[in-house]
C-alpha cells in the first residue's frame, strides 16, 4: 500500500477509472440510505450457514494508510466485505483506487482471513492480509508492490472507552524492501448525541529504507516513521456515517518523503461510509 522508490513521471491517465469508482461507491451509499431512514443493524446474517456478512462502501477525500496518502491527495472510492462464521473464522476483501508516482498502479485489491476469539475479556484477531495491485507492472529500476502481512489485533472495552491495538509483520514488505514491522495503539470513545471520538499512534519499521549503491535489491523509499491520527464520527442519516480525521506523520515532506512526493504531509480527511 505504500510507494516504490522510483518516482518518474506518470504515463497513464487516472481520471476515468477514479470517476467510475466514485460513481459506483456513491450509488452504493445512496442504495444503502434507501434501505432505511433510520439507523439499522449494520450486518446481514445467513443463520443456516452460521455466517455474518458486513459490507461497507466508502467515499472520501483521500485514502490514508498508516499516515500516508495512497491516492496522492485525490478522492477515493472503496468497498470492504467481511464474512465471519460463528466459529470465529473469517475471510474478507477490500477494493480501492490508488495513485502511486511513477507506476501504472490504479487499483488495490486485498484479501484477508483469520480467526477471532475472546480471552479474559480481550477480543483478539489473528489473521493475514495479501495486498495486490492488479494490472501493475514494475517500472525500470522498480520492484514489486504486492506483499503480505501477518496481523494481530486486540481490543478491550471499559465503557464508554474501547482500547485497540495491532501488530503487523511482513517478511518482504512493499517494494521488496525486506522485513516490515508495524505497531499501533489507540482508543475509541462514545459520546453523547451519537458522536464517537478516537485516536491512534503507530510506528513503521522497514529493513531497507533506501537503495544501497551497487546492490540489486528493493527499498522502501523513506525513513522509519511514526504517525498519529485523531477523528470524530457520527451517523448523519440513514445509517451513513461521516468521519472527520486529522492525520500527522514524523516524515519531513521534502527530505524524507519518497523523493519529495506529496503523500506524507499532515492533512484533514473526510469520509462517508454506510455499513450494511
TrEMBL record:
<dbReference type="Pfam" id="PF09694">
    <property type="entry name" value="Gcw_chp"/>
</dbReference>
<protein>
    <submittedName>
        <fullName>TorF family putative porin</fullName>
    </submittedName>
</protein>
<dbReference type="InterPro" id="IPR010239">
    <property type="entry name" value="CHP02001"/>
</dbReference>
Amino acid at each position: 500500500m505504500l510507494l516504490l522508490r522510483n518516482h518518474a513521471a506518470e504515463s497513464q491517465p487516472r481520471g476515468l477509472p477514479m470517476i467510475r469508482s466514485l460513481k459506483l461507491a456513491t450509488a452504493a451509499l445512496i442504495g444503502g440510505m434507501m434501505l432505511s431512514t433510520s439507523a439499522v443493524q449494520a450486518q446481514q446474517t445467513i443463520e443456516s450457514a452460521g455466517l455474518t456478512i458486513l459490507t461497507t462502501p466508502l467515499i472520501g477525500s483521500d485514502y490514508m494508510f498508516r499516515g500516508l496518502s495512497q491516492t496522492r491527495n485525490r478522492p477515493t472510492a472503496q468497498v470492504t466485505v467481511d464474512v465471519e462464521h460463528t466459529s470465529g473464522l473469517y475471510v474478507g476483501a477490500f477494493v480501492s483506487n490508488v495513485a502511486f508516482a511513477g507506476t501504472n498502479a490504479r487499483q488495490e485489491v486485498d484479501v484477508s482471513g483469520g480467526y477471532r476469539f475472546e480471552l479474559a475479556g480481550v477480543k483478539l484477531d489473528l489473521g493475514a492480509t495479501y495486498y495486490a495491485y492488479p494490472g501493475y507492472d514494475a517500472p525500470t529500476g522498480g520492484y514489486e508492490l504486492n506483499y503480505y502481512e501477518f496481523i494481530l489485533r486486540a481490543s478491550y472495552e471499559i465503557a464508554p472507552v474501547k482500547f485497540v491495538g495491532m501488530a503487523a509483520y511482513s517478511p518482504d514488505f512493499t517494494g521488496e524492501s525486506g522485513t516490515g514491522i508495524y505497531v499501533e495503539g489507540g482508543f475509541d470513545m462514545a459520546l453523547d448525541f451519537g458522536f464517537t471520538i478516537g485516536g491512534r499512534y503507530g510506528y513503521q519499521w522497514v529493513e531497507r529504507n533506501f537503495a544501497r549503491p551497487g546492490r540489486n535489491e528493493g527499498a522502501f523509499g523513506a525513513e522509519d516513521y511514526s504517525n498519529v491520527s485523531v477523528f470524530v464520527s457520527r451517523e448523519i442519516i440513514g445509517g451513513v456515517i461521516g468521519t472527520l480525521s486529522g492525520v500527522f506523520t514524523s516524515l519531513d515532506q521534502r527530505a524524507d518523503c519518497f523523493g519529495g512526493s506529496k503523500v506524507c504531509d499532515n492533512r484533514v480527511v473526510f469520509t462517508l461510509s454506510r455499513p450494511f
